[in-house]
Amino acid sequence: MNPETIRHIVEFVIGIVVLLGALVSVISVFGIIRLPDVYLRSHAATKSATLGVLLILLGGFLYFWIFEHHISIKLLLGIVFVFITSPVAGHLNARAAYRSGVSLWKGSVRDDLKEDLKRERQESRGV
Amino acid sequence: MLVLKRSWAVIKLFIIFNRELFLSSIAVLLHIVRPRLAIRPGIVEMKTELKSSFEITLLSCLICLTPGTLTLDVSNDGETLYIHAMDIKDAEELKEQIKSTFEKAIMEVTRAC
Amino acid sequence: MLNGFLLVSLILLSLAILGSMFRLLAGPSIPDRIAALDTIGILLLAMIAVIGMLNGTAAYLDIILVIGILTFIGTTAFARYMERGVVLESGDDQTHR
């Protein structure tokens, strides 16, 4: 194969990866609009942060590696950073929501935390 | 030898995590685009066997990263994780799944000997 | 050909930012708005990566790191504010609780 064909194939693959990432982001934002309560929306938000951004940054990394001959440490660092921070941010946000009393969706089937949190609060008040 | 075993465990954890990330992402995406919402969310408590705070942090981060499950809270003694799951078909099955994939892989990383 | 793909994904990403803007304005509770703000930050980060590819320059990659860090710090500060009512705690507060 001549280099021109190979270049086209690589461009096509990178384009598909980036487009897939953008599609995942759009679907999960659709979930953020549609789902009924904070905790479910937070599932959708965490997903767009991980899978969509992972795919787009991976596409960018491949692009700069193959076409610019420049292995970008900054993009790799960005991927690692998003991977570390997005679950922590999701957890903090959902925990703050639960502790400040945002109620669950009415279709929820189970809530094990309610009783334990009540007991913990009573204990800390008693001490 | 120990270093070799431990790095193999890290690679295995990474592979397991990527597989779970993709499978559960697709499951959650299908839930979102379905015309009628057919989800039954809920909060499940899970006793963990992990002891040190590093292991518990790693486990709760991995649970948060896989879409469909989210760590809501950790009890003060660090023994119970409260997990908000998007679709509970069977709570015992969910717990068993987390235990058999993530918890086992984390134990292999931190307690290799 | 690559440019076409990149332009389409830029349009999709800006639609996504518009969608989270709706949740930011309409969200019934404060955690909804915080999650929407976090999502906007992450999507902006992805958008800048696509713009960098479109222009063929690696000069924008620093911005990705800065936006990632700022989004995380912002979300953490908001969540702490929601939970405790303060962003930065001084040491004396511990004794009164």
UniProtKB/TrEMBL annotation, chain B:
<keyword id="KW-0813">Transport</keyword>
<keyword id="KW-1003">Cell membrane</keyword>
<protein>
    <recommendedName>
        <fullName>Na+/H+ antiporter subunit E</fullName>
    </recommendedName>
</protein>
<dbReference type="GO" id="GO:0005886">
    <property type="term" value="C:plasma membrane"/>
</dbReference>
<dbReference type="InterPro" id="IPR002758">
    <property type="entry name" value="Cation_antiport_E"/>
</dbReference>
<dbReference type="GO" id="GO:0015297">
    <property type="term" value="F:antiporter activity"/>
</dbReference>
<keyword id="KW-1133">Transmembrane helix</keyword>
<keyword id="KW-0812">Transmembrane</keyword>
<keyword id="KW-0472">Membrane</keyword>
<comment type="similarity">
    <text>Belongs to the CPA3 antiporters (TC 2.A.63) subunit E family.</text>
</comment>
<keyword id="KW-0050">Antiport</keyword>
<dbReference type="GO" id="GO:0008324">
    <property type="term" value="F:monoatomic cation transmembrane transporter activity"/>
</dbReference>
<dbReference type="Pfam" id="PF01899">
    <property type="entry name" value="MNHE"/>
</dbReference>
UniProtKB/TrEMBL annotation, chain C:
<dbReference type="GO" id="GO:0015385">
    <property type="term" value="F:sodium:proton antiporter activity"/>
</dbReference>
<dbReference type="InterPro" id="IPR007208">
    <property type="entry name" value="MrpF/PhaF-like"/>
</dbReference>
<dbReference type="GO" id="GO:0005886">
    <property type="term" value="C:plasma membrane"/>
</dbReference>
<feature type="transmembrane region" description="Helical">
    <location>
        <begin position="6"/>
        <end position="26"/>
    </location>
</feature>
<protein>
    <submittedName>
        <fullName>Na(+)/H(+) antiporter subunit F1</fullName>
    </submittedName>
</protein>
<feature type="transmembrane region" description="Helical">
    <location>
        <begin position="60"/>
        <end position="79"/>
    </location>
</feature>
<keyword id="KW-0050">Antiport</keyword>
<keyword id="KW-0812">Transmembrane</keyword>
<keyword id="KW-1133">Transmembrane helix</keyword>
<keyword id="KW-0472">Membrane</keyword>
<feature type="transmembrane region" description="Helical">
    <location>
        <begin position="35"/>
        <end position="54"/>
    </location>
</feature>
<dbReference type="Pfam" id="PF04066">
    <property type="entry name" value="MrpF_PhaF"/>
</dbReference>
<keyword id="KW-0813">Transport</keyword>
<keyword id="KW-0406">Ion transport</keyword>
<comment type="similarity">
    <text>Belongs to the CPA3 antiporters (TC 2.A.63) subunit F family.</text>
</comment>
<keyword id="KW-1003">Cell membrane</keyword>
